[in-house]
Amino acid sequence: MAATGGHTVKAFDEDLGQLRALVSQMGGFAEHALGEAMRCLVQRDCEGALRIVEGDRKLDLLEAEAEQRIVRLIALRSPLADDLRDAVAALKIVGIVERIGDYAKNIAKRVPEIEGAGQIEPISLLREMARIAASMVHDVLDAFVERDAAKAKAVCERDGAVDDFYDSIFRALLTFMMEDPQNITRSAHLLFVAKNIERIGDHATNIAEMVCFAATGERLGDRRGAAG
Amino acid sequence: MLTDIEAKADLKIRARAVSAFYGAKKAVDDVSLDIGTEHVTAFIGPSGCGKSTFLRTLNRMNDTIAGARVEGRIELDGEDIYGSAMDVVQLRARVGMVFQKPNPFPKSIFENVAYGPRIHGLAPRKAELDGIVERSLRRAGLWDEVKDRLAESGTALSGGQQQRLCIARAIAVDPEVILMDEPASALDPIATARIEELIHELRGRYAIVIVTHNMQQAARVSQRTAFFHLGELVEYGDTSEIFTNPKVPRTQDYITGRYG
Amino acid sequence: MNSAPTLWRSEAMRIRVAGRYAAERRFRLIGLGAVALSLGFLAFLLGTMALNGAAGFMETRLKVAIDFPRSDLFLDAAALQGPGAQAALAGADIEGAVAAAAQARFGAAGPRLISDAGWLRVRDALAADPSLLGRKAEFSLPAASGLEGRPEYHALQATGALVRGFNLRFLTGSDATDPAAVGIWGAFKGSLLTMVVTFAIAFPIGVLSALYLEEYAPRNRWTELIEVSINNLAAVPSIIFGLLGLAVFLNFMHMPRSAPLVGGLTLALMTMPVIVIAGRNALKSVPPSVRDAALGIGASPVQVVFHHVLPLALPGILTGTIIGMARALGETAPLLMIGMRAFIAAPPGGLDEPATVLPVQIFLWSDEVSRGFVEKTSAAILVLLAFLMAMNGLAIFLRNRFETRW
């Protein structure tokens, strides 16, 4: 159910607008971190990776600020109905986005670990997987700002693709490890990277659930391809 | 829009297709709802939406206004309250009312509470009357504050105390329903909180209907909420549902402050 | 919003403010002037009345000694104690004995120095104490009216035979031909009885009518017509009510003429609209919250009115009633029409006996030629004013007593 008009108290609308802008900003930041981490992974850019790790602190600060804003909103505006659901959803979403940022940081941390000779084939798969995950995050946060439950639901459906990618990469890396035991260290790290990206996809569906709840007041129900 | 009251025994007032007119002006338009004893029912809505008018049809207080007319059927325990068999005076004892501005009689505190039982013949002996007065004042949470000064004038009390006195007065005739028309709107927050706590204590013993402008109060105090708008009953359901996920867009607009 | 900020301290503003203060001052002065003028008129009235009337409360008395055993009175002490006392007193020539004693004391002109009704005092004294017949007794008898102006006055005063004292008889006696002997009590009692009748009829009917019109009557054309009629009735000249009383009570119903009953009925007709109007206003001023509270607890309409509304409206009703009664007390014209203008020498015994009222008495005395009546008239006006102030005082007392805060 979309909002039928602005609040009589205009400052309330401003507060909500600023909150959404903050969530968007966090989302963009996390997306960027993920994209950069993958690029550093492919190009073996250790300095870039270091920058990503340090930059994660900013995301933490943004999350703290968002939390504070939401608490103020609840205390001062006494939101009800869809405004209340929006506030609760926003609180959970910023936590999830912060965790997505943490995963991106984790990926960046592993960049120095896979340094070494030779091209690793599965990395291209990883990049594709990350691209889908990043687009899921982008779309679901758009859906939050627009309060579009249908868009959010569509995002959930793409999680299946991410899970499929994970399965293939898993098998590919296992094969890689069996081929040459010297690859095990690097492959193990890549496995974790794959895992992180898969988790990012799951988190995007969690966000989608929250968006649906905020918009309609109902839970999304069983998701396809749950638990990963 | 009806809400089924599960147990038949719980149903106290049943209203069907009730419309109320002031002369030619229609103030309440085709309202149907049930009120039960187990819950506190709140009526919310903007000014002039008909919630107070509808409340007053439940104890026929609108009869006193010239040109007021009520159509439809309202039953108290199955009896038609607008039927010829219903004695208005007794109806108003069974369905008590507390008003927005506290209006104790300009008599002593004791007399205020004792007046109702006396005129209805509920306590022929003085000892019984004393008992009723004490019981009513205790239930209203006022006994400890006034037990030493029952002979003082009721109008000398503070606003919150006066309102609790009015509640005690209504309780003294052992009503089945208590109607409250914005009972705390003239009181400070602490007095308001005491009234709300009192309502909580009275729940279950009397069917309570409260009209309020303050949505947070409706949310705190009631279990069922009815939203009125322009004389119509727009939505009626569980309070937690109405305030977290109302089904009708008009309801949501009103409670989130997008109305107007 | 103004585009430029307001200059509160500019010269134009200062002039405006000064003009405003001046206007306030002027208004206050005019108000004070009006009050002072009214007080001046009132002081003039009261002062003139007091000056003229003070003399009316005083009387000049001459001391006369009567030696009963040696006088020509054929009265037996025993006879005065028996049932035939009145007849015996009437038969005796007390007047002659007094005249003889006066002559003995003051000379040939003596009897004329004493008021015509002076011998009545001796008669009353004998009736009270028959033992006086056995001895010589001294009496202070009222002097003839106008004695103060005559040349003998100073001579008599020098001899010490003159006494000037408070005229109790003025307050206890009734009308008489001799101004020295007139009393106000007859008219006072007549006024009192008339007021009692007026109150007994006008108050219940007026209050109940006000209650019905305000609380029960439906708002339609008929009740509006009644309301307009009552308002007009309150403005009808009082003499019309006199004509009404004459036509209905005297000619049609053949009630006793000049009786307090008829006077009271006539004045009741006049006072009732005032009470109804005051009653309705008082009832209107009771806030609806009181009625709502009573109705909400299940009181019937009658209980609401008598237990809650009426007690709160009572101060206003009482005030209106007293105002109406005070007006009735001072009415002369209607009572003249129904005949309360006769010379009544004795106070009325009951409601159906002929009587007169204070304003009529004042009117009659002011018509008299004799000079002595001037001061009596002023004195009577003072008595009437005192009665009015007592009534107002009663009203204020009752109103304060019944005032409850709501």
Explain this structure.
The complex is a heterotrimer of chains A (228), B (260) and C (406). Chain A is mostly helical. Chain A has 6 helices and no strands. Chain B is of the alpha/beta class and 260 residues long. In chain B, helix 7 links the parallel strand 7 and strand 8. In chain B, helix 4 crosses helix 6. The mean pLDDT of chain B is 91. In chain C, strands 2-1-3 form a 3-stranded antiparallel sheet.
Report the strand count of chain A.
0
Radius of gyration of chain C: 30 Å
What sequence of helices (H) and strands (E) makes up the elements of chain C? HEHHHHHEHEHHHHHHHHHH
**Oligomeric state of the chains?**
heterotrimer
Shape of chain C: extended
Q: What attributes characterize this protein structure?
A:
heterotrimer, A: 228 residues, mainly alpha, 6 helices, 81% helix, disordered C terminus, C: 406 residues, 5% strand
Question: What topology emerges from the helices and strands here?
Answer:
The complex is a heterotrimer of chains A (228), B (260) and C (406).
Chain A: H1 10-43, H2 46-77, H3 81-110, H4 122-146, H5 149-179, H6 184-216
Chain B: E1 11-22, E2 25-36, E3 40-44, H1 51-57, E4 68-76, E5 79-80, H2 88-94, E6 95-98, H3 109-120, H4 126-139, H5 143-146, H6 159-172, E7 177-181, H7 189-202, E8 207-211, H8 215-221, E9 224-229, E10 232-238, H9 239-244, H10 249-256
Parallel strand pairs in B: 3-8, 3-9, 6-7, 7-8
Antiparallel strand pairs in B: 1-2, 1-4, 4-5, 9-10
Helix pairs in contact in B: 3-4, 3-6, 4-6, 6-7
Chain C: H1 11-56, E1 58-67, H2 77-81, H3 85-91, H4 94-106, H5 110-113, H6 119-128, E2 136-142, H7 152-159, E3 162-166, H8 168-172, H9 185-216, H10 221-233, H11 238-252, H12 260-284, H13 288-296, H14 301-329, H15 333-337, H16 358-367, H17 372-402
Helix pairs in contact in C: 1-17, 4-6, 9-12, 9-14, 9-16, 11-12, 12-14, 13-14, 14-17, 16-17
In short:
By secondary structure, chain A is mainly alpha-helical. Chain A is built from six helices and no strands. Chain A is elongated.
